[in-house]
Every structure is written in structure tokens, then in C-alpha cells.
């Protein structure tokens, strides 16, 4: 049944998504659960099959999966404007919080305080937890574990942003060779997405065009805002596996080049765990540290723009693409490499700059246990990390 787009329906999308943006803690998997409860179970904006298809598409694409699902739901409810409003509502609360945190950090020099070190230890626990969950789902067999191992070794030996891209591309090719004959048991009817193929083609062309043009433009102009936009856009375009995987890409874009210190970087990553909404809003923090609130907004737009272009660009073509065994095989290889990249990031820079003493390790073990075994919400872990870091700094 076609949904008539009205001001009331657009306002409803904005209000509902904003409430989710204020309350959705727990990372992308938890976000999908919140979306299902609010959009599917309560409001019946989509049927179960269409939602499952949309989630499958967003898992296939690079970028922030939960944000893309939210955008897709908004698009299917009220067209492209609905998608934009759903994105704004879900993302803005954490963007504002992280920009304020960055400005305070910059103004008062909190980097050396004990509670900041506690947040860095929180980052160790959170990323280790993410790796466990992803490894279980994405590397269930020996072939994919071997791909992950190769990604770990290459990423640690050659620590450049280009290595990340090369590892993902090679893993996709290896996955294509190993799993191209795998059969897909899928007899379901395809979902109908309200996006024309013409608009989809325009968005995909723009996505790839910016990926090529922005680095050239940054090199030619040497303008800081162009360089920043290029770095965030590229990071948002090349991340498979969600917000945790953007960490190594952003770290290698901004820390070695001197845009911000490793302490500032990891403090912001810890703070990002304390706010609801998508982890990609970590970019707002980095942008604000570098260029104030304007830099935060620029970074947010740049890192989420690929997600917009990809979700709108691929919706019309997804049903046929997801049934292609060769494409699915390549994706299996890419996902295994993502696990390896995360393991490398856990060691460097997160572990090496956070776990400095046996006390740090013991405290990290407690935080990890609280998250994994006691299953406490992330905000409790963050609060415990900040308080514990402050207390430990007194001794």
C-alpha cells in the first residue's frame, strides 16, 4: 500500500527517530532491535520480509549499517526527505554531545586527567567485545579464519590507510574464488523499494565520482576543509562491518598526520561509547577537535554522505544482487578481513596506548567482564571506566 507523504508523516518520522537517537545505546546490533520494536512491531511501517531485506542490504554495503537501515525505513515511509529526517533524528543527539565534549576537551585540556585514561581502557573492552561477536559470526570456518589472520598480519606490518583498502579488496577476491559455487537457499519474493533505477544510478555515480575526485581535489587545492572532507568521505566509503571498524581508518588518517594526538583520539572513542546513536558520530568529535563546531558538522556530513548515496543508489537493484552467489562469496571474504583489521586495531593503537601497567590490565579485565559476562549496558561500563580511571590516578 502506497504511503501518502504529508507534513504530519514527516514530523512523525523526525520525532520517532529523535527519540530513538536519544535512547538507542548498545551499538548497531542493538539499534536494529530498537528499530524493529519501534518501526515494525509498534508502528507497522514495514512488514517483516521488507525489513529483513533492508537489513540484509545494509549489512552488504560499506558504512554504518544501523544508520543505513534507519535511512532506508525513512525513505520507504516518505521518500528521500523521509530518509533525511530519519537520519537527522537518529544522529543529531550524539553529534551534539560529542561536539560539546570535544570543545570542552580542547578548552580545558582534559587529556591528561585520570578519567580520560579510564575511557581509553573502556575502548579496549568494547573493541574486544565487538571482535568476539563478529568473529563468531563472520569467521565460522578455517578458510575465513585464515583470511582474518592474513588481514591481521598485513595490517600490523604495513600500517597505512592504503593497506586497509588493499586488504579488503584482496579478501573480496579470495572470498569470490573460495565461495563462488556456494548455493543460496532463497525462494522468497523480493521487496519493492520506492526508488527509481534512474535515481539509484545517479546516486551510485555520485558515490564513485566523489571517491575519485575528492583526493585529486585535496591534493590540488591543499585546502584544509577539502582535505578533511576527503578523509572522512573515504573512511565512510571503505568501512565494512560497522562503526568499530572505522576506528583504524580514522586513526591512520588523523593521528600520524598530526591533526590530533593519540590521547585525544582514544579519549573521544571512549566518550563515543557513552552516547546513544551510531558510532560513526565519532567523526563529529574528531572534526570538532580539529576545526570547532563547524569542523564537527563538516565531518559528520562527509562520513555519512556515502551511506546516503549507497542506500538510495542500491535499493532498486538489491533484490537481484543479493541472489548472486559470486557477490555473496566476495562479501564473505571481506567480512572475514574486517575481523582481522579489528584485531590489529585492538593491539595498535588501542591496547598499546591504553594498557600500560598491570593495574590497567586488571581494570580492563573487570570492564570486559561487566560488558560480556554480566551484560551491563555500555553507559554503565563507560561511567565505571571514567570513575575508575580517576580513582586509580590518585594512587
Automatic annotation (TrEMBL):
Keywords from the UniProt entry: Cell membrane, Membrane, Transmembrane, Transmembrane helix
Top-rank taxon, per record: Bacteria
Main location: membrane
InterPro entries the UniProt entry points to: Chr_Tranpt_l_chain, Chromate_transpt
One term of GO molecular function: chromate transmembrane transporter activity
UniProt GO cellular component terms: plasma membrane
Transmembrane segments: 84-108, 114-135, 147-179, 199-220, 297-318, 330-348, 379-394
Subcellular compartments: Cell membrane
Protein topology in the membrane: Multi-pass membrane protein
Family, per entry: Belongs to the chromate ion transporter (CHR) (TC 2.A.51) family.
The protein, known as: Chromate transporter
Amino acid at each position: 500500500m502506497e504511503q501518502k507523504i504529508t507534513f504530519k508523516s514527516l514530523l512523525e518520522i523526525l520525532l520517532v527517530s529523535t527519540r530513538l537517537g536519544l535512547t538507542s545505546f548498545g551499538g548497531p546490533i542493538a539499534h536494529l532491535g530498537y528499530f524493529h520494536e519501534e518501526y515494525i512491531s509498534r508502528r507497522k511501517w514495514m512488514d517483516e520480509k521488507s525489513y529483513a531485506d533492508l537489513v540484509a542490504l545494509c549489512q552488504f554495503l560499506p558504512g554504518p549499517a544501523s544508520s543505513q537501515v534507519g535511512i532506508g525505513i525513512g525513505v520507504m515511509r516518505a521518500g528521500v526527505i523521509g530518509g533525511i529526517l530519519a537520519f537527522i533524528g537518529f544522529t543529531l543527539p550524539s553529534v551534539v554531545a560529542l561536539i560539546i565534549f570535544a570543545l570542552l576537551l580542547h578548552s580545558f585540556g582534559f587529556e591528561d586527567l585520570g578519567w580520560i585514561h579510564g575511557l581509553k581502557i573502556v575502548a579496549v573492552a568494547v573493541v574486544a567485545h565487538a571482535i568476539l561477536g563478529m568473529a563468531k559470526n563472520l569467521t565460522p570456518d578455517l578458510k575465513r579464519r585464515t583470511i582474518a589472520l592474513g588481514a591481521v598480519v598485513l595490517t600490523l606490518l604495513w600500517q597505512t590507510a592504503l593497506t586497509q583498502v588493499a586488504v579488503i579488496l584482496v579478501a573480496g577476491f579470495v572470498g569470490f574464488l573460495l565461495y563462488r559455487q556456494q548455493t543460496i537457499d532463497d525462494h522468497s519474493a523480493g521487496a519493492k523499494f520506492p526508488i527509481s533505477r534512474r535515481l539509484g544510478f545517479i546516486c551510485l555515480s555520485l558515490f564513485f565520482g566523489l571517491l575519485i575526485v575528492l583526493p585529486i581535489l585535496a591534493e590540488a587545492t591543499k585546502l584544509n576543509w577539502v582535505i578533511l572532507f576527503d578523509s572522512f568521505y573515504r573512511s565512510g566509503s571503505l568501512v565494512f562491518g560497522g562503526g568499530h571498524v572505522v576506528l583504524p581508518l580514522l586513526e591512520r588518517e588523523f593521528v600520524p598526520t598530526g591533526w590530533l594526538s593519540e590521547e585525544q583520539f582514544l579519549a573521544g572513542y571512549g566518550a563515543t561509547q557513552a552516547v546513544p546513536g551510531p558510532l560513526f558520530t565519532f567523526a563529529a568529535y574528531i572534526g570538532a577537535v580539529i576545526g570547532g563546531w563547524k569542523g564537527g558538522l563538516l565531518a559528520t556530513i562527509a562520513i555519512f554522505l556515502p551511506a546516503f548515496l549507497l542506500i538510495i543508489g542500491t535499493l532498486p537493484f538489491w533484490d537481484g544482487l543479493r541472489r548472486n552467489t559470486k557477490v555473496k562469496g566476495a562479501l564473505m571474504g571481506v567480512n572475514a578481513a574486517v575481523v582481522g583489521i579489528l584485531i590489529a586495531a585492538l593491539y595498535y593503537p588501542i591496547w598499546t596506548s591504553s594498557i600500560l601497567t598491570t593495574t590497567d590490565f586488571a581494570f580492563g579485565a573487570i570492564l570486559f567482564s561487566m560488558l560480556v559476562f554480566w551484560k551491563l549496558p555500555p553507559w554503565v561500563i563507560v561511567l565505571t571506566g571514567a570513575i575508575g580511571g580517576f580513582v586509580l590516578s590518585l594512587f
